Amino acid sequence: MIFSKSRLLLLLTLLPGLAFRVSWAQEKCGTVAYQEIRLHRNPRLENTDQFEKWMKDKLQSRLKTLSGDRTQSSTYTIPVVVHVIHNGEPVGTGTNISDAQIISQINVINKDFPRNNLDAVNTPPEFLPVAGSMDIEFALAKQDPEGLATNGIVRVQGTKNSWAMVDNDTFKALSYWPAENYLNIWVINLQDGGLIGYTQLPVSNLPGLEDSSTDRLTDGVVIYYRAFGTNDGGGTFDLESRFSKGRTATHEIGHFFGLRHTWGDINSCSGTDYVDDTPTQIGSTSGCPTQAEVSCSHDKMFQNYLDYTDDGCMNIFTLGQVARMTTVL
Predict the structure, then answer these.
(1) Residues 302-316: what's their mean pLDDT?
(2) Which of 201, 316, 313 is nearest to 260 (CA)?
């Protein structure tokens, strides 16, 4: 079956002559900056506080249902279309990544979300009671918007050799399938100050927001081509060593389903991701720590998919995060 999204979808557009600057230093996910650009473009769009009030109300009953149960009752099947925006190379070379590389990525997310990933054994014992799994399957689409058979992979030669976030609407317009029927993933040569991915966050159906942008043409996930897929299992794909286990897609799809960064994007213990069972922490975590790190008087959950650690350190979604994603779906 196909999934439905009761949410408004927003379009990244910059006002002519708008001088909007974002610092990309030490960033690898551009989702927050992308959201800020949209709010700057249209201040009437739903802000974080409004979204979280809606989310809190929806979660109350669901969290009671999930107490003591690590999976939601419904099974979700998500049809995926991967748009490879390449530079004219043969398939399997450079930006024109191979089918095998794409399939390896689908395999990763199909293990990470239900917590069938082999490195789940690396989750520290203190976090095991809140480890959650989501009964979900991501499937490369078998039918295109015209009803024809497909493998869920579309290859399009781009009009530029590399892309930045400000090119968002341009490269997405090169290849797009209706967002109400497919999860669109664009794999591009993303050259934007160290970013390796970003996502269009969902918004709720709050009263008074009916006139917000409903343009669905940019809805989906964007990932740098050298951070898409995995070399686990003997792959030899041209991937960045730190991001060669496919967790960039896990992270960004988590955003797509409504998750926030675990530190709340504030370098303070007052930051929040609006999930009760992810410990508060000061700022993101980089690299791959070899032992527990203390932040805000307790151990960081730096193994969480919504932190900034290297792929090899990520291995957990929490019950609260699963409840949040299920609520958005």
Answers:
(1) 97
(2) 201
